[in-house]
Amino acid sequence: MYLRELRQPVSELKGVGKSTFAAYTALGIKTWCDLLLHLPRSYEDRRVKVPLRNGYSGKPVNTIVEVISHQYIGIGRNRTLKVIIADESGPASLVCFGRNFLQDLLQIERKFYLYGNFSVKYHELQSSSFEVEPYIPDQKPKLFGSILPIYPLSGRLTQNTLRRDITGLLNTSAKHIQDELPESLRRTMGLMTKYEALHAIHFPNSHEDRELARKTLAYEELLFLQLIVRRRALRRQTETPRKNRVSISAANHLTRKLIDSLPFTLTADQVSVLNEIKTDLFSARPMARLIQGDVGSGKTLTAFISALEVIDQDVPGQAAFMAPTELLARQHAENAARFLEPLGIRLAYLTGSVPQSQRKLILKALAEGDIDLIIGTHALFSKDVVFKRLRYVIVDEQHRFGVLQRIALLNKGDMPDLLLMTATPIPRTLALTVFGDLDVSSIHTMPPGRLPVKTYLAAEKSRERVYAAVKVEFERGHQAYFVYPRIDDTGNSDLRDAETMFDYLTKKVYPGLPAGLIHSRIPEDEKLSIMDRFRRGELVYLVATSVVEVGVDVPNAACMIIEHAERFGLSALHQLRGRVGRGTAQSYAFLIYSDALSPEGRARLLVMKESNDGFVIAEKDLSIRGPGEIAGIRQSGFLKLVAADLVLDHELLTQARKTADLILSKDPGLLSLENTAFREVLSRCPPFDEELTDG
Ligand code: ADP
Ligand code: MG
After folding, report:
1. Is 120 helix (H, G, I), strand (E, B) or coil?
2. pLDDT class for 165, splitting at 50, 70, 90?
């Protein structure tokens, strides 16, 4: 039996009652398999004796003590037992808050194993958080003398419950878990069996033991990840040529016309990305390309130009452009209207809020081939959207969509070309691995004439000075964004919020200046009208939450003020900062941080101050926070990695990649989804089963 097949619900474990079950559910633990994969976040080493005396230095004590006497603090029903104990290094006391029952266990003159955290109170060494176990000569203690796992908890779950349930499984059903890695591979890599690894990661005999267990589980995960990614890449190379590819001779007139009509010239990076896309479009296999480039680097325009290649054909192809929010979709639609409509391109705009009657007309025109380019949101992949000849799918901010959503749109055509765009640059390590099946194009340079945004970090106490500096910018005719981590005052936090600050800024700081408030609870049409008024300059500043994060383009906005900046992730900060510096004026970002700034928060803000380069910021983000946290990658369905760490395990990953290539080259049959052996391998591997639908 494979680990994955232990699908019994945790409620079927002995001793798991209602509250434990609820706590497991909250942790996402549903099955026995989930429970075994709930890995410790750290360990407590109870092999080494730490005498009471060392408690003075704050170290956890791990020793054998004798009970000297019982005392009580307080009187009556509220009195608390205090047990005086000693080991050979000296005395200490255990304060048993709410645990007076310990008087029966901790009998005078008896000996106990003791583990606890001590501190000095009233001139003596005291502990109120400790664990004890009777000392019986010549008998191995249950918890003491070993390395104990410390698990992430929830609700009323305790370490002991988790240890009990996991030990229970390891000693019964889990015993029969089979290996997933082939024996030969396991031996060459010097890895444990799956059962040994599971046992040792929960209850290691030594630190070396634990590290080897983690390596075993991590390698297995990475190998499967690489098998998926490499298989997809290989499959695309060997796919049968498509009949409907774009022909070179027909295209080009409209492209030239558009490029010539632009009031600026394309940057060198835009031109080279366009050439890469063209090569893909003309090739026999469908394109799967990711453009990464900082906000404002001109990705969207590049995508529009490339779409013309597909549309401008003897038999015109259709293109779909999908954006994650209504706001963005509309902005793209407006730009498309500006650039493309003069060329006679037939455009449509489709989102959830398009009225039913209009929607009907659009769908009809789309199905009859009377629309060349449709721009919209998630609404584009709903079932009733049918294309006559969908040839090209463009996805903006691709990480905001799931793999399956992307596929749903692609399936509306016959092997259409796919162009993904992201302003969250993907660090090199991840590009190699997670996105190993995509071709990647990068736009590194910004259009000329843009000045880098100047970034200032400001402490709480300098807030008013920031407001004054922004006022000077207002007097110069510029606009600003103020961003807050919350929408409104929830009453139980010290955080400033958008609603309260809108009030404060409009009444106290900038009276008389028209401003707008924008956040996710404002209705969609109102949001759009506020954005319009801001774009037209009728509103001087916006007070917002991070809804203004992605793609919003107002060149006259020159100041971005982010309060409680440490609350935002690096990529969010970078995206927010990208809202300014889109015109020719000098722009500023003010990151106001709270007094209680953690070292990690400080490190992040310094990265923002020191770099304007999204690629550098993404690499730093990866090293500060780890890959799972990076925007969007978690949702991409790929990185539900349990044991592996893409930063720490880079070496292991490279090995896994080599092995995956070797396996796939020896057995090309594995490339086909009909290959049941491979299906089976995949279905056993929790993070990847959804990929099976990728046909
Ligand atoms: P992105 O999608 O990468 O955020 P956009 O394509 O929306 O960037 O471009 C941002 C702004 O810069 C738009 O107003 C666009 O018209 C303009 N732009 C694009 N390419 C250039 C260029 N080569 N020179 C000057 N401005 C450009
Ligand atoms: Mg964009």
Report:
1. strand
2. very high
pLDDT, residue 426, reads 67
CATH topology of domain 253-283+298-422: Rossmann fold (3.40.50)
Is the pLDDT at 637 greater than 60, yes or no? no
- Taking CA atoms, 270 is separated from 55, 305, 331, 546, in Å, by 64, 10, 20, 28
- Give bridge partners of residue 119 from the DSSP assignment: 126
Say what the pLDDT of residue 337 is: 95
Given the CA of residue 294, which atom of ligand 1 is nearest to it?
A: 3
Residue 384 tokens read as: 């009733």
Ligand 1 atom nearest 265 alpha carbon: 23
Which residues does residue 376 pair with via DSSP β-bridges, in sequence order? 322, 350
The DSSP code for 486 is B
How far is ligand 1, taken at its centre, from the CA of residue 277, in Å? 18
Work out the average pLDDT over 625-642: 50
Question: At which residue do the structure tokens 């583990």 appear?
Answer: 115
Q: Where in the chain is the domain with CATH 3.40.50.300?
A: 253-283+298-422, 454-611
pLDDT over threshold 80, residue 260: yes
Ligand 1 contact, 442 CB (< 6 A): no
User: In percent, how much of the chain has pLDDT > 70?
Assistant: 86
Is the CB of residue 306 below 6 angstroms from any atom belonging to ligand 1? no
What pLDDT does residue 20 have? Answer: 93
Q: What is the pLDDT of residue 551?
A: 55
Task: Tell me which CATH code domain 454-611 carries.
Answer: 3.40.50.300
**CATH number of the domain at 48-137, please?**
2.40.50.140
At residue 424, the pLDDT reads: 72
Q: Using the atom order of ligand 1, give the atom closest to the CA of residue 449.
A: 25
pLDDT in tens, 404-418: 667 778 788 888 899
Buried b (16+ CB within 10 A) or exposed e, 186-217: beebebbebbbbbbbbbbbeeeebbebbbbbb
Q: Where in the chain is the domain with CATH 2.40.50.140?
A: 48-137
* 266 CA → ligand 1 middle, Å: 9
Q: What is the pLDDT of residue 660?
A: 84
Nearest CA to ligand 1 atom 9: 298
Contact present, 81 and 190 (Cβ < 8 Å): no
Cα 393 to ligand 2 centre (Å): 16
- Is the Cβ atom of 583 under 6 angstroms away from ligand 1? no
122 by Cβ neighbours in 10 Å (0-12 / 13-18 / 19+) ranks as: exposed
